[in-house]
Structures are given as structure tokens and as C-alpha cells.
Design brief:
globular
């Protein structure tokens, strides 16, 4: 099967997943924007008064979340709570690496005309070693915005699955399984967004 697998397989290791979603935010949007409007904070971090939707932070924020079981939903938590769950050394390490990776990715994406508003990473342990697990920096785990239409103070156009989220909000989906059937046009438009982002970032098309 070597020929069939060429270019579409990878060698992986089994790891014990750290039960924390490692989220870094460069802009205030999504659940972070909702939390800020309610409390003036995101994940226990007090933010300046008067921020507007989609505004850029002076520095990226590490905003962890719980890693929920299938059928449940992740919840934003403070860094201190994350440390109580996963350990101080573990959270300090993944915070540093998440922000470092995010900053490098942001710089590259901007050069291609895309803003990475935020992203999620997951880490796992093999023995005493912490490694990245799962995919990262894709439209499934990141918010990609077109640079040429960015304007703070409002929701942004998006290359990611926010398009699907917006549809689910419009039909008042209660976030409980089973999910509603997606119309064909929503599926096609989401696919087109993913492919557009791929072509902008890599110069290649499928």
C-alpha cells in the first residue's frame, strides 16, 4: 500500500493528552468577546475598558479552556485553574510554546494576506516529554480573517468554520446532539473558504 499512502500519511506517537485546550488570542472575538462584554475579563484577565469587537490586543493572550468530553462543550477558564488541573510546570511550558508558535504563524500569515485572530493547540505527554498533538493552525482550530477587509468594531469575514457557527446560531441550534443537517450551500461555501485560505497560505490549490 506504499503507493496509496504516499503523501497522505504520517508516523505518529500515542500520547497522554493534557486535559486543557491551549488557546491564544490576538484579537477579541468569539467567546472572548462575549465574556468581555459580560465581565470585562477573558479567562480571569482584566482587560482595558472600552475595547471593541475584533480589536487587536497589545500582546497575545493565553486563555485556556477545559477539554470537554464528546457531546459537551469546552469552557474558558483562568490560567490558575488550568494549573490546578494540569500542573504549574505543564501549563507554564504549553503557554510559552503556544504563544511562540502563534506569533511565528501570525507573521507568516500576514505576509500572505491573512490575520490569524486566535488559535487552539493541544499537547500531550510521552513519559516526561510534552509534545504537540492533534492538528494545529487550520481553519478548524483557528480564526482566519482576510487582512484586506479587516476593520475593528464589528464581526469579520472569515475563512474558517465560523461560517458554520453563524448558520447554527441563525437556526437556534441548542448545541446538543444530534446537530441539524447543514444545507448544501452552507457546506459548499465553507469548503470554498477553506480552499481559498489554503491557496493564499501555500500558493497551491486542490
Amino acid at each position: 500500500y506504499a503507493e496509496d499512502l504516499e503523501g497522505r500519511s504520517m508516523l505518529v506517537k500515542k500520547a497522554e493528552v493534557v486535559p486543557i485546550e491551549s488557546v491564544v488570542r490576538g484579537y477579541i472575538t468569539g467567546s472572548g468577546w462575549a465574556d468581555y462584554k459580560n465581565t470585562g475579563e477573558v479567562c480571569g484577565i482584566k482587560l482595558p475598558v472600552g475595547m471593541v469587537e475584533s480589536e487587536k490586543f497589545l500582546q497575545p493572550l493565553f486563555t485556556p479552556a477545559t477539554k470537554a468530553e464528546i457531546g459537551l462543550h469546552d469552557e474558558n477558564i483562568s490560567e490558575q485553574t488550568a494549573k490546578e488541573i494540569a500542573g504549574v510546570d505543564t501549563i507554564d511550558f504549553i503557554k510559552e510554546k503556544t504563544i511562540q508558535i502563534y506569533k511565528n504563524a501570525v507573521e507568516y500569515a500576514l505576509s500572505k494576506g491573512i490575520i490569524i485572530a486566535d488559535t487552539k493547540m493541544e499537547f500531550g505527554k510521552i513519559g516526561n516529554e510534552l509534545i504537540l498533538v492533534d492538528e494545529l493552525l487550520t481553519p478548524d482550530s483557528s480564526r482566519f480573517w482576510p487582512l484586506n477587509t479587516y476593520e475593528k468594531g464589528k464581526p469579520q469575514e472569515s475563512f474558517d468554520k465560523q461560517f458554520v457557527r453563524d448558520y447554527l446560531v441563525s437556526v437556534k441550534f441548542n448545541k446538543q446532539p444530534p446537530p441539524p443537517h447543514l444545507p448544501e450551500d452552507i457546506i459548499l461555501k465553507t469548503s470554498e473558504k477553506y480552499l481559498e485560505a489554503l491557496e493564499m497560505l501555500t500558493g497551491e490549490s486542490l
